[in-house]
């Protein structure tokens, strides 16, 4: 059950006309009151009835209008829509009436038993939701006390869901981005777009933040997406904020509708973006293999999430969100859709009420940006698979980290990201593992590898040997042996990186850990043998956020 609260000033006449009218797309049907402050307020009903609408508005506005104009509050109207989930059963009018009373009581609009409370009505014009309209001056002339009404109503809705057997939504902590409104969804549909402008802008700004190395580049990347960017300047000339607009999102006068960064998401305000940009290492030269460098940096995130350092863990979760964004643009086309979905889902898991010490994740954030600036898109599926195998572990750790802290929305977001990352891993890793399995070593070599496995990690040997991915691991051991590595030590080191008991495929896990360690060692050797390494480029090699397509013609 989703409540959405807005406030405004002036009378309630326009709001009532909308609630009892046909709607923007004739979506309103059987408009009627289900409850009111006195249980007998005039009901205009489903047919146009301007006189009754005016009478209802006058009664609602009476306490406000009774005050001298100079004593009226700035905000005089309170509007809350309450919507059930698509899978929920159809509620009766009596049930909606009870829900409305519980909502206005929780908000402080009309506490139970308070006969001098604010005036309010609940209108039903669709099967799945109601609208509650209220005025914010009580009938005794005092202004309503509605401290933290949004949080209170959210909490009430969680209780209502349980009482009525409705789908239980995850409790929030006030750090989630604001959802697009119903009119914004309708507008996107009218313009032929799959998502509201707010959602497209949020994703583009988030991606630009992940890719940018400094503030100037952040704004340049934003402009490169095709959106309209408007920096906010102080009298001194300093930039203090910014707002963005989708080229197809205009008002009735044809003017762009701008959203400030903080309205898109709390972590996308300019002060927050500056904190992120300041918390990144500045490398003197690019790494030989940015995929394996990113994987190496990501491994440290696992250790931090297992520690008691909440501020550091929160910083690493935010930086890991950046890594998912940049991985999307540097990855092969086959896995980009799932990676993009994972990055979008995980964004909610990157923020909580815990204050992040972003400098602690500077190395991971730098590695994330290096993927954009030094990786060659689609050329290293092995490196991507190594990184994804670690990303899956990080996401699982994030699920647990949020769960023990009762971050319900963040936990659910991490779970969604986990599903998408697992699919992306399968798309990336399966061809490599299949090819490796075809190059299984000779039987005598395979028997020798089995013996080494029993000696190195006896507690997992039987499970690994029965794993369908064992032939691929055997081929990896053969390749490792050719480099002169000690197989016993390689297996033991790989097993000790993190427990294997919960791994769905321990052979796959060991394959990628050994591959990543070998690649890292080769990368170090290459760097040492190279006398001069080109300085890091200032322009990204891989594609950044796809420019926003031109706005379609408006439907008439």
Overview of this protein structure:
It is a single chain. The protein is of the alpha+beta class. It has four domains: 2-164, BirA Bifunctional Protein, domain 2 (2-Layer Sandwich); 182-278, no CATH class; 279-431; 439-533, no CATH class. It has 20 helices and eight strands. It has helices spanning 13-20, 50-65, 93-107, 149-164, 182-190, 197-211, 215-224, 261-264, 270-278, 290-305, 310-330, 333-346, 362-374, 381-404, 408-438, 443-456, 458-465, 470-482, 487-496, 506-529, and strands at 2-8, 32-36, 77-83, 120-126, 129-135, 228-233, 239-245, 259-260. A hairpin with a 2-residue loop joins strand 4 (120-126) and strand 5 (129-135). Mean pLDDT is 88; it is low at 525-537 and 546-556.
Count helical runs.
20
Measured as a percent range, the helix fraction is: 40-55%
Here the CATH topology of the largest domain equals: BirA Bifunctional Protein, domain 2
- The parts where pLDDT drops under 50 for at least 5 residues are 525-537, 546-556
Shape: elongated
CATH architecture of the largest domain: 2-Layer Sandwich
- Give the helix/strand class: alpha+beta
Annotation, overall tally of beta strands: 8
What's the end-to-end separation, in Å? Answer: 34 Å
Number of domains: 4
Supply the CATH class of the largest domain: Alpha Beta
Radius of gyration (CA) equals 29 Å
Give the DSSP E fraction (strand runs of 2 or more residues): 5-15%
Main sheet: strand order: 1-3-5-4-2
**Helices and strands, in N-to-C order?**
EHEHEHEEHHHHEEEHHHHHHHHHHHHH
The profile of the biggest β sheet is: 5 strands, antiparallel
Mean pLDDT, rounded to whole units? 88
